[in-house]
Amino acid sequence: MSNEHRASNADRNGIVMPQPTAWPITLAFGFMLLMAGLVTNAAVSVLGAILMVAGCVGWFRDVLPHEKHVVIPCEIVEAVPAQTQRAQVKVFDLAPEHARAFLPITYYPISAGIKGGLAGSVAMAVLAVAYGVIKQGSIWYPINLLSAAIYSQSIQFGTESLKTFHLNSFLVACVIHLITSLLVGLLYGAMLPMIPRRPILLGGIIAPILWSGLLYTALGIINPLLDKKIDWLWFVISQFGFGIVAGLVVSRQDKVFTQQNIPFALRAGIEVPGAMRERIGGSSPDEDGRR
Amino acid sequence: MSSETMALSPHAVETQSLAERLHGWATTVDHKRIGVMYIGFALIFLVIGGIEAIIMRIQLALPNNDFVSPQVFNRMFTMHGTTMIFFVAMPIMFGFGNYTVPLLVGTRDMAFPRLNAFSFWLTAFGALLMYFSFVGGFGLYGAGSAPDVGWFAYAPLTSKVFSPGHSSDFWSLGLIVSGFGSIGTSVNMITTIVCSRCPGMTLNKMPLFAWMNIVMSGMVLFAISPLTAAQIMISLDRYLGAHFFDTQAGGSAVIWMHFFWIFGHPEVYILIIPSFGFISEIVPVFSRKPIFGYPIMVGATVAIGFISFSVWAHHMFTVGMNSWGNTFFAITTMAVGVPTGIKIFNWLGTIWGGKIQFKTPMLFSLAFLFQFLIAGLTGIMLSSTPFNWQLSGSYFVVAHFHYVIVGGILFAVFGGFYYWYPKITGKMLSERLGKLHFWLFVIGFHLTFDFMHIPGLLGMPRRIYTYEAGRGWEIWNQIVSVGALFQGVAVLIFVFNMIWSYWKGKDAGCDPWDAWTLEWTTTSPPPEYNFATIPTVHSSRPLWDLKHPEDPDWKYE
Amino acid sequence: MSSTTLTPPLTPPPIETPWVLPSRGKVGMFSLIAAESAIFTIFVVAYVFYIGKSISGPTPREVLELPIFNTVCLLSSSLTIHFALGALKKGNRAVFTAFWALTIALGAIFLFGTAREWHHLIYDKGLTIQTNLFGTTYYSLVGLHAFHVTVGLFGLSLVLAFALLGWVKQEHYGRVDVLSLYWHFVDVVWIVVFFVVYVAGR
Fold first, then answer.
1. Contacts of C11 in chain A (CB under 8 A)
2. Which of B114, B338, B390, C100 could disulfide-link C84, Cβ–Cβ 3.0 to 4.6 Å?
3. DSSP, residue by residue, B222-290
4. Among C62, C201, C129, C197, residue whose Cα is nearest residue B243
């Protein structure tokens, strides 16, 4: 089979291609001169305008009434059958309903990341609020600090003001907390299967330590105002809380099979008769290909 | 055939004189030759822009240095930025797009071959016009004055008062000329991809590189046009005495920033999206697996295209917007990280479990993944408004965007060179030299741009001409400058490799990488008509289908 | 590891025939229109941003009059070009030429109207591009539009000349249609300019 080609639209002697032409370069050069005249001398612009007119007319006559062509001689040879040095394909046995797949065969569903992120966000919020109550005597303290990360009004609060409720700060902090938690949760869902051996150790403890360390060293320089108000021990503890809870929740979800070889229309939930035609016929071997 | 038709023999080329050959290149409408001209043009300017960078690094290597004068230093950073963005990065993307897209979608030429030539020449002449300012410009410091207003040319620096003479005009006029070229090529690219795909190539079977190019071209239409409009306004101000950016007459300097960055930020994505395309073509081939999550990749690209138009003011946090403005742009900026992160995971998913071949293109792609991730993370850091207030306009920002442009885009481009050079010339690039190039460049890159973050954190502002000793910046600047030399040497090796391999390299054959897309079905270099017969495809990996007729992809798509 | 080479080669399903893709001219023109509309957007944004920010007079309220007649002319030219194309599609070349000429006449009236308005503003009211921000934004936005009308008129006249020479035939419908897209775009831009400059801006 293979090189099934449509009938060539070339005539017997060759293939029709557009004829080379000097008018585009003339027109472009004219336009450049037109502009260059503005920084040099008006005469240059005049020359440019003349060239542009010539270029336009010449270009026009290239395409009207008929496009000019050249015929490139071409012996239509039989296409060389494509070859591969790797004709062998390594195949795993797979349950029949999963037509063909490539590694990774299974992964955590997106919902696992979302659940992990939400669970982690609750754990982190509990720890952060606990810090606020125990150390600062107000649950609003950590919330106001969080919003100060992007909401510039909050950064100007004094220590007392930080302990009271501010609607704007609260809303901004909620948005940051939820979005970041969801994103990091999704990240965990995508990453945990790739982390070798002890994913919770790496994802829940080591990564937060690295991240907090980086922030700790940088924040003193970048935002000393914010830095002074952060209790880094509790910061790290709440990061651990997030990492461990999110990691545990994610890893307890069931992995699902990837949908790599299901047609997009089907994945998008569109029911198209005939989209599954190959498999309805039952002729395809069910396999999982990997090279 | 009409009477204008004439026949050309393919063998005639070898017997032509130099003048005839030059004439052939100047008049060509062949997408492959235009693509090669784009790439060659970009490489020349890469060297020029690189020399400008090295001049700056020599100047900054020592405190209180006076290797060049302050005036020359201003010209260097202005021209370095402008050159690298407009005359290196964009043309090289257009060049690869021009060369490969018609091959990838299985057609014989771009949709508008003459417009293609016209657009290339506009870009080239725009660059010439701008560089003519080095001899013909007349500015604040007399004749021979290149533009010195910075690559984003904030008003009122460009007003007649602060920039007398013509040096700024060279900047805006050169960009207007080359901007029309970019728009022309984008129109052409979109039309080619939409209207010239070979039979069977539906949108969801199109190679990802073509997808990335159509998204990039769409973005060019909506990003370069505002820049052109703003340049027209500057010219109206300077020539006709209009008041767009004239604060004395009530005009606003800030609106120029908005106009510039509504171009400027999407521009970054205009450059990075084709780079994603390179990576999406290279990684599967050298992992011996199809791309993981094709529809998601397409969706993420389109999402990046849209979101990137709503983030521009994160360049302007220090200008003074209200809190909600800051918050909005901080959030959109973080949001653009989401589809980008999805892409990185899809590439990792592609590599995972594959039989990885560490050829040079793959090495550059792997380095891209790592470096682009870091560049994205510093980007997320900068999107936080208070953080940005502290570091905006510092070397931290310079390090961040060079990490994107060099560590991301340039690495992807080098990968693309090693991947497609065999197709373009018919010869393989030397793997030995390629690996030497790779490692030297990686070392130089990390020396320069990793350590460039630190003087930024220590408060070194960008664009300063020199600095005094004893601020703790010296050692970092020296490391950065040494790294720049490493990169310079690596690029020289690369250039040597290309020239040497062209004459002495191994023959590539049609399909040296055992790849799966249509460009590898034709000879290397391809004939003028690309395909003797227009191919027909049944899946997104047409060559896989041909190589494995017993287990083709189309059974499952 | 097992090899699958034992399975016999399979024949792929046929490609849907005929393989039809959108017309090049239209897609190219729509892309160009997208770029053009971005340029206009920036000028419109500049106009809107600077409404009421002029330090000195004259203000739009003092000098601008609603160009109703002009607007009617330009907008009706969209209709006439539509009729012209309808005639060409049916092969009625005489009707095509008549409507096409009418379109050009309407466009020319519009352009003449703009010229008269500018003459009036410059010589009677003393408003130039240098006078104030209103002058700057007004002349650049309306001027940019007038430039596009001029380019459009030039293209239309060329087709008219060909039509009078009898070169425009039914089979050229596609090409002429692409040109008409541009003309429609110019008209739509005028609606925006009209509302921004003459309604909201006053």
1. 1
2. C100
3. HHHHHHHHHHHHHHIIIII---TT-GGGT--HHHHHHHHHHHHHHHHHHHHHHHHHHHHHHHHHHHTSP
4. C129
Q: Which of residues 304-343 of B touch A (CB under 8 A)?
A: 323, 326-327, 330-331, 334, 338, 341
Per-residue model confidence as pLDDT tens digits over A70-86: 888 876 665 565 677 77
* The pair of three-digit structure tokens given for residue A122, joined into one six-digit string: 């609750």
In 3D space, the residue among B64, B60, B126, B54 whose CA is nearest the CA of residue B90 turns out to be B126
In sequence order, the β-bridge partners of residue B7 are A71
Structure-block tokens of residue C19 = 């393989």
Q: Which helix (H) or strand (E) is B294 found in, with range?
A: helix B294-307
**Nearest to residue A228, comparing CAs of A159, A138, A133, A181?**
A159
Q: Alpha-carbon dihedral of residues B280, B283, B284, B285, nearest 10 degrees?
A: 120
Biggest CA–CA distance in chain A, Å, is 90
For residues B162 and A145, give the distance between their C-alpha atoms in angstroms, rounded to a whole number: 43
- Tell me the average pLDDT across B329-351: 88
* In contact, B107 and B529? CB cutoff 8 Å: no
Residue A72 to residue B300: CA distance in whole angstroms: 41
Tokens representing B195? 């209207």
With a CB cutoff of 8 Å and minimum separation 6, the contacts of A157 are A144, A148, A166, A169
State whether ipTM is beyond 0.90: yes
In chain C, where are the structural domains located? Answer: 25-200
Instruction: Answer whether C94 touches A (CB < 8 Å).
Output: no
Q: The tokens of A85 are what?
A: 């040095």
- Half-sphere exposure for C65 (CA within 13 Å, toward CB): 12
Return the CATH fold of B26-541: Cytochrome C Oxidase; Chain A (1.20.210)
Tell which C residues from 161 to 180 touch A, by Cβ distance under 8 Å: 167
Question: Residue A198 and residue B66: Cα distance in Å, rounded?
Answer: 55
Domain locations in chain B as residue ranges: 26-541
Option in C12, C38, C140 nearest B552 (CB): C12
B547–A83 CB contact, under 8 Å? yes
Residue range C191-197: average pLDDT? 95
Interface probe, candidates A3, A4, A288, chain C, greatest C C-beta count within 10 A: A4
What is the DSSP code string of B54-90? HHHHHHHHSTT--SS-HHHHHHHHHHHHHIIIIIIIH
What is residue B33's three-state secondary structure?
Answer: helix
Q: The pTM is what?
A: 0.88
In the 8-state DSSP scheme, what is residue B384?
A: S
Q: Each residue of B72-127: pLDDT tens digit? A: 999 999 999 999 999 999 999 999 999 999 999 999 999 999 999 999 999 999 99
B167 touches B146 (CB < 8 A): yes
Partners of residue C115 on adjacent β-strands = none
CATH class of C25-200: mainly alpha
* DSSP reduced 3-state for B358: coil
Cα-Cα-Cα-Cα dihedral sign, residues A7, B550, A289, B556: positive
The token pair that represents B390 in the structure block: 């502290």
Q: Distances in Å between the alpha carbon of A278 and those of A155, A270, B175, B218, B295? A: 61, 17, 53, 36, 20
CB environment C63-78: b (16+ within 10 A), e (fewer): bbeebeebbebbbebb
* A105 min Cα distance to partner chain B (Å): 10
